[in-house]
Write a structure and sequence with these properties.
The protein folds into two domains: about 150 residues, FAD/NAD(P)-binding domain (3-Layer(bba) Sandwich), CATH 3.50.50; about 220 residues, FAD/NAD(P)-binding domain. A hairpin with a 2-residue loop joins strand 25 and strand 26. It is an alpha/beta fold and about 425 residues long. The protein is globular, with a radius of gyration of 23 Å. The N terminus and C terminus are likely disordered. It is built from eleven helices and 27 strands. Helix 1 packs parallel to helix 9 and helix 5 runs antiparallel to helix 6.
Length: about 425
């Protein structure tokens, strides 16, 4: 409630958005000119461009290239306030949020876009040994582990120990796993080729493990096969139709085989935020909210769940893909509903426009599709680069990433190869 210039009281509808990812960001932007009080709450102070997070983990980009402060994004959006905080519970009856620090935040409309984190399918003890890739902190940890593995191999006198440090296992053959495997292969076989004296980085073994019959399961079969062949040409050993049954400090058990490895990366599954459990509504196996056609939850038309936190059913009867375009379209759809104050009965169902998919494997290597059109090789790689630069949220990031990629393309070097801790400081030293 605020005073107008004439001294009269005006009551503003409060819209609270939890999560500054693709969905929350686009929802808030859609409300820019609305006569609404918008509050954006996020655990972090920045929006992260997750599709390029693997490039931070593989030392191609720095965190600032793909992360932008939320306050900077909304600096000129006068009706929007940003706070950094963790929401612990949703009180639907009283229409308020309970934050971790004890604060209570009332709302008229609530949009939940809390995303997802990696899931170990009940084997949470594997997480310290096989970190996932969802945040900047995750990416920096993985980058450090990769680079330090080469340092450990260089200083050991044991050939067997050196080989273990030069073995890398990526679990999960989706886009993240495929892109990460290709990036590590380029680091080992090209970037670090002349950097060491006692070891030959080219002897590194990179394994990509996928439980399904092929990598990139959502992609057409021909493109999956092309991706596999490209990876194998780069020296990646692709293992499909096999499940990981155990991970230890010594390596990974894959079916009947044990792969000795000092570096394991998890890219196999996701689970939604535990905040959704406080909504007391049906959730799917991944913990996502089962939303209605307008993306609201049952009996509460003022509460919406979007992005990776939502299980929204498409025309084909299957859940919509957990990708950035889904979250972006859902965020804009909800923003328009709220801006126009459309009542539940008059809301048109959300319709997803499938833009296909694309994944890069390495320099001049990528695969992609749009409907029945398939593209691969350098053409797909150029499209992949254009799309990712286009979707970065500010010009500084777009320009910086383009320069870094040009430098990397011409020289093969990765400019973010910094290790911030010495080997002695690490608890996993050998």
């Amino acid at each position: 409630m605020e005073g107008s210039p004439r001294g009269k009281l005006m009551i503003y509808t409060r819209v609270v958005i939890v999560g500054g990812g693709f969905g929350g960001l686009n929802c808030a932007k859609t409300l820019k000119k609305a006569n609404l009080d918008v509050l954006l709450i996020d655990k972090k102070n920045h929006h992260l461009f997750q599709p390029l997070l693997y490039q931070v983990a593989s030392a191609a980009l720095s965190p600032a290239d793909i992360a932008t402060p939320l306050r900077e994004i909304f600096a000129d959006q006068k009706n929007t306030t940003v706070i950094m905080g963790t929401v612990d519970q949703v009180d639907k009856k009283n229409r308020k949020l309970l934050l971790q620090n004890g604060d209570e935040v009332p709302y008229d409309y609530l949009v939940i876009g809390t995303g997802a984190r990696h899931s170990y399918f009940g084997n949470d003890q594997w997480e310290p040994l096989a970190p996932g890739l969802k945040t900047v902190v995750d990416a920096l940890k993985i980058r450090e582990r990769i680079l330090i593995s080469f340092e450990k191999a260089e200083r050991t006198d044991s050939i067997q120990e050196a080989e273990r440090h030069l073995n890398f296992v990526i679990i999960g053959g989706g886009p993240t796993g495929v892109e990460m495997a290709g990036a590590i292969a380029e680091i080992a076989h090209k970037t670090l080729f002349k950097n060491f004296r006692r070891i030959n980085p080219e002897k590194s073994k990179i394994y990509l493990v996928e439980g399904a019959p092929r990598v990139l399961p959502p992609f057409p079969e021909k493109l999956s096969e092309r991706a596999r062949k490209d990876l194998e040409k780069m020296g990646v050993r692709v293992i499909t139709n096999e499940l990981v049954t155990n991970i230890t400090e010594e390596g990974v058990q894959v079916g009947d085989d044990f792969i000795e490895a000092g570096n394991v990366i998890w890219a196999a599954g996701n689970i939604a935020s535990p905040l959704l459990k406080t909504l007391d509504i049906p959730l799917d196996r991944q913990g996502r909210a089962m939303v209605e056609p307008d993306l609201s939850i049952p009996d509460h038309p003022e509460i919406f769940v979007i992005g990776d936190a939502a299980c929204s059913i498409g025309k084909d009867g299957k859940p919509l893909p957990a990708v950035a375009p889904t979250a972006i379209q859902q965020g804009r759809y909800i923003g328009k509903l709220i801006r126009r104050q459309i009542p539940k009965k008059k809301r048109r169902p959300f319709k997803y426009f499938d833009k296909g998919g694309i994944a890069t494997i390495g320099k001049n290597k990528a695969v992609g599709f749009f409907k029945a059109i398939h593209f691969k090789g350098i053409f797909a790689w150029l499209i992949w680069g254009f799309i990712h630069i286009f979707y970065l949220v500010n010009y500084r990031s777009q320009f910086g990433v383009m320069l870094d990629w040009t430098f990397h393309y011409l020289t093969g070097l990765r400019g973010a190869r910094l290790i911030h801790k010495s080997i002695k400081e690490r608890p996993d030293k050998k």
